[in-house]
Amino acid sequence: MGVHQHQKKTFRFPRTFWLANVMELFERWAWYGIFIILAIYLTASRDEGALGFTQVQKGYLMGTVVGILYILPVITGAIADKAGYKKILILSFLMLSSGYMFMAFVTTYAAMFVVFLYVAIGAGLFKPVISATIAKTTNKENATVGFGIFYMIVNIGAFIGPVFAAKMRVLEWKYAFIISALAIAVNIILVVFFYKEPPREKTGESLGNTLASILKNLLTALRDVKLIIFLLIIVGFWTMYNQLFFTLPVFIDQWVDTHIVYENIRTVWPWLAGFLANEEQGINAELLVNIDALYIVIFQVAISSVIKKIKPVNTIITGFLISAVGIGLWFVTQNGMYLFITILVFAVGEMASSPRILEYIGNIAPKDKVAMYMGTYYLPLAGGNFLAGILSGDTYTRMSDKTALLQKEVARRGLDIPEISENVTQNDYFSHAGELLGMNPQELTDYLWNTYQPGNIWMVFTGIGMGTVLLLFLFDRIVLRRYR
């Protein structure tokens, strides 16, 4: 076969492959469109149209629900194999579209928890089906290219969603959720009219027996001490990583001066500054967080090419180390311009390490149990999300939450201010405190920053990252050698 023919074959994919990628783009658009603004929406002041929950409530809601989401594919993949991919995709999209719409209108904590869990179940149904579709529409010759395209599409969707959400939520918060619902509605049309079911291996085994078999394989893999140790270590990375969504948007919204970002962009590209924001509001926090996805779209292929010949464990350790440094740098200044550099540092570490975790699990697995071990990949993701929620809730409240720190200052000074309640919003509280202290909003923010040093939370997140690096190094040098 000539080189030209080989290249044509490598890049030739069936229509279902491309359709699956388009559906992935819209699903990621919808998910990240709401997920990147969710921490702010849950905790910002009610008179701004947000829900005014506490950081602790936010942490438990996001951490618990997303943790459950990452456990679901173990079960939902088996259900899809039995029921058929097309039926599960239709069910998933119906749940996601209606769920995002519900999220636009529910206002109580219990209702939001239930609706977000409903959305997570829909996402959990989607994840294994779309990955299986990509796997079944590629072959040995083009699988690497196919999954590379798929990963790029994931990040394009993850970048587009927050841009639309940022524009919509300025008009009204509910519009951001409605846009996500409409993005999924496009997928309903695509799957109903154009999706062709790829061939599936049909066995006579009942769904109950299949699930029992999956659970048995999972428990068998988890009897391996070295695998359990590795998975527990990786929980540390995902706990640190998820602060990108759980903590950073809130921290930027509360503490960081994003007007300077607007002014610098306006100096070079006035049209872009006008599109992203306006002089009064500055740049929305989620747009700055979204730089991470943009960096991945631009640099992932190049970084993967550089590290592909290096041992997975070495790139994972190096990547974790770089990300830990990057995440620490997020919190050291109120100047929003530095986020362009610090998020890049974090993203380089993420791109070096995250894609190779699954590969490393395959390397430590016995040759006849690789697939069985791969099934444990989502467990540390689930654990990392749950712990990330706790840290972004209770720990953030004690160390960095602007409202909690102001309440602490008010109590220290013995000021008489009505507490935040159904009738008193966060903005009311800040306004009253500012009047009594003789400070405007920016002066009050600067005073709290200098007095309580909320940026010190970097020590917690970077400490977790550095601890993960050390433990993984010791694991590879000591534990693996003992069990080889």
Describe the SSE topology.
Blueprint: H1 3-10, H2 15-43, H3 55-71, H4 73-83, H5 85-103, H6 109-136, H7 143-171, H8 173-193, H9 207-221, H10 225-241, H11 243-246, H12 248-255, H13 259-268, H14 270-276, H15 285-289, H16 291-307, H17 312-329, H18 339-353, H19 357-364, H20 370-374, H21 378-399, H22 402-413, H23 426-437, H24 441-452, H25 458-483
CATH fold descriptor of the largest domain: Growth Hormone, Chain: A
Q: Total number of β-strand segments? A: 0
> What's the overall average pLDDT, rounded?
89
- Reading off the top of the CATH hierarchy, the class of the largest domain is best stated as Mainly Alpha
Our estimate of the beta-strand percent is: under 5%
Taken from the alpha-carbon principal axes, the silhouette is globular
For CATH, the homologous superfamily of the largest domain is named as MFS general substrate transporter like domains
For the record, the count of structural domains works out to 3
Return Rg in Å.
Answer: 23 Å
Largest sheet: none
